[in-house]
Specification:
globular, five-stranded parallel β-sheet, alpha/beta, six-stranded parallel β-sheet, single chain, 425 residues
C-alpha cells in the first residue's frame, strides 16, 4: 500500500530521496560499449542487436519500403490521431521560435544576436516492453520547427529485424530524415561518433534506460544532449473537492511505466488521502501492467499530508516533479506560487495523459528534481545563439582608454595593446 506521511515530519532529503547516478557496473559496461562502437562501427552495432534484441540484421537503416509498409498498415483512425497530435505539437512549438535582434541606439555601435539551428540532431526512441510513437513526435517536431536539416532517429529492432510499424508511422508523420535499427548505449555511441552508415550528429535527445542515460552523460562534450532522464514521476496536488478515483487513476498513469516510477499525492485533505489509498488498492489489480504499478506504488509512492494548500505547494516546489497536476478549486490562483515543475496540468479535467500524447506541450521533461534548473525539451534545444557587434573607429576611440585600463587590471597587457595600437601615431 502507498505510504502516508505528514509534511511537517519529513526532512527535505526524505521528501526528495532520488539519485540518478549509475552503479559502477553500469558505467563499466557503457564504457566498453562506447569504445567498441568507436572501434568497429556497424559490425559492433549488429552484434549488439543480436545479443540484446535477438535481431539478426543485414542492414541497419530502415528502408523507404519499410516506411511505406508501416503507413499502409496503420488503421485510418490512429493515423488521423497521429496527424492531429503532430499539428498540436507543431503549433505549440512554433510559439517558441526566437527572433534575431539588433541594438543600434548608440552612434557608431551595433550589437545583436542571431539564432542558428544545429545541423544534425539524433533522436533516441526506446523499444523493448512498449512502443512510444508519442516520443517520436515530441522529440522530432521541435527539431523540424527549429530548422534542423538532418534528423537521425535510432530505435532497436524486434527479434524479426523490423521496427514497430507504429514507431515508423510516427516518424513518417513527424518528418524524420533517416532511421537506424539500433538501441541502448551502442546507439548513443553511434550517434556521437558516427559509424560506416550512421552519421555523427551535433546533439542527442530522447529518453532511455539507465544504460542510455549513462551513455548520454559520457558522450556529452563530444555532442550536446537534452538531459539525463531518470524514472518517470507524477505529483498530484489535490484538495478535498477532488474525486479520489480520478486521482488514483492519474497516479497509476505513471506508476505503470516503470517499477522505479514515482507517483506522489500532496494534499491538505486527510479524507482524500485515505480515499486515494483505498482506490489504488482497487485499481492496481485491474491493470495489465499491475506488477509494475504495484512495485512503483509500494516502493516509490507517497501521499504527503499538509496542513494547508500553501504548505502543499511548498512540498511541490521541493520535489520539483516531472509532471505536476494541480487538481484544486482555483488552479490559476496558485499557478504563480509553483516554481519548480517540468509540465503543469491545471484543473481537475487535465490528466497527465493529455500532455503525454495530444495537447501540444512537450512531454520530454526534467526528472529527479532537475526541474529546479532545467526545462522541457523545445525549440531552444535545437538552436544556437551567436552574438555579434560592430563599432566604427570613432566609437571604439571613445571607450579605448577604459578597455585598456580594464585589461591591464587583469594583467592582460596584450588585450590592452590590441585596442590602443589602433590609435598610435
Amino acid at each position: 500500500m502507498i505510504k502516508l506521511y505528514n509534511f511537517d515530519e519529513l526532512k527535505p532529503e526524505e521528501i526528495l530521496n532520488r539519485d540518478i547516478r549509475a552503479e559502477k557496473n553500469v558505467e563499466d559496461v557503457v564504457d566498453a560499449i562506447i569504445a567498441d562502437v568507436r572501434a568497429r562501427g556497424d559490425e559492433a552495432l549488429k552484434e549488439y542487436a543480436l545479443k540484446f534484441d535477438g535481431a539478426q540484421l543485414e542492414d541497419l537503416q530502415v528502408t523507404r519500403q519499410e516506411m511505406d509498409d508501416a503507413l499502409a498498415s496503420m488503421d485510418p483512425y490512429f493515423l488521423e490521431t497521429l496527424r492531429q497530435a503532430a499539428a498540436n505539437i507543431e503549433h505549440f512549438h512554433r510559439q517558441q521560435v526566437h527572433k534575431n535582434f539588433v541594438v543600434n541606439d548608440t552612434p557608431g555601435v551595433l550589437l545583436g544576436q542571431k539564432y542558428t539551428p544545429i545541423e544534425k540532431a539524433g533522436v533516441y526512441v526506446p523499444g523493448g516492453t512498449a512502443a512510444y510513437p508519442s516520443t517520436v513526435l515530441m522529440d522530432v517536431i521541435p527539431a523540424k520547427v527549429a530548422g534542423v536539416s538532418e534528423i537521425v532517429m535510432v530505435t532497436p529492432a524486434g527479434k524479426d529485424g523490423t521496427v514497430d510499424p507504429v514507431i515508423l508511422a510516427a516518424a513518417a508523420t513527424a518528418g524524420v530524415t533517416k532511421i537506424f535499427k539500433t538501441g541502448g548505449a551502442q546507439a548513443v555511441a553511434a550517434l556521437a561518433y558516427g559509424t560506416q552508415t550512421i552519421p555523427a550528429v551535433d546533439k542527442i535527445v530522447g529518453p532511455g534506460n539507465i544504460y542510455v542515460a549513462t551513455a548520454k552523460r559520457k558522450v556529452f562534450g563530444k555532442v550536446g544532449i537534452d538531459m539525463i532522464a531518470g524514472p518517470s514521476e507524477i505529483l498530484v496536488l489535490a484538495d478535498d473537492g477532488c474525486n479520489a478515483a480520478w486521482v488514483a487513476a492519474d497516479l497509476l498513469s505513471q506508476a505503470e511505466h516503470d517499477k522505479l516510477a514515482s507517483p506522489v499525492l500532496v494534499t491538505d485533505s486527510p479524507r482524500l488521502a485515505k480515499a486515494v489509498q483505498q482506490e489504488l488498492e482497487k485499481q492496481i489489480p485491474q491493470l495489465p501492467r499491475a506488477a509494475i504499478a504495484r512495485a512503483s506504488v509500494d516502493d516509490n509512492g507517497k501521499i504527503i499530508l499538509c496542513t494547508d494548500l500553501h504548505k502543499a505547494i511548498e512540498a511541490c516546489n521541493i520535489i520539483a516533479p516531472e509532471h505536476l497536476e494541480v487538481c484544486v478549486e482555483d488552479p490559476f490562483g496558485v499557478l504563480n506560487e509553483i516554481r519548480n515543475a517540468g509540465s503543469i496540468f491545471l484543473g481537475r479535467n487535465v490528466p497527465e495523459a493529455l500532455g503525454d500524447y495530444f495537447a501540444g506541450p512537450n512531454h520530454t521533461l526534467p526528472t529527479s528534481g532537475t526541474a529546479r534548473f532545467s526545462s522541457p525539451l523545445g525549440v531552444d534545444d535545437f538552436v544556437k545563439k551567436s552574438s555579434f557587434l560592430y563599432y566604427t573607429r570613432e566609437a571604439l576611440e571613445q571607450v579605448a582608454p577604459r578597455i585598456a585600463d580594464f585589461a591591464q587590471r587583469e594583467g592582460l597587457h596584450a588585450h590592452a595593446k590590441s585596442v590602443t595600437i589602433r590609435y598610435e601615431k
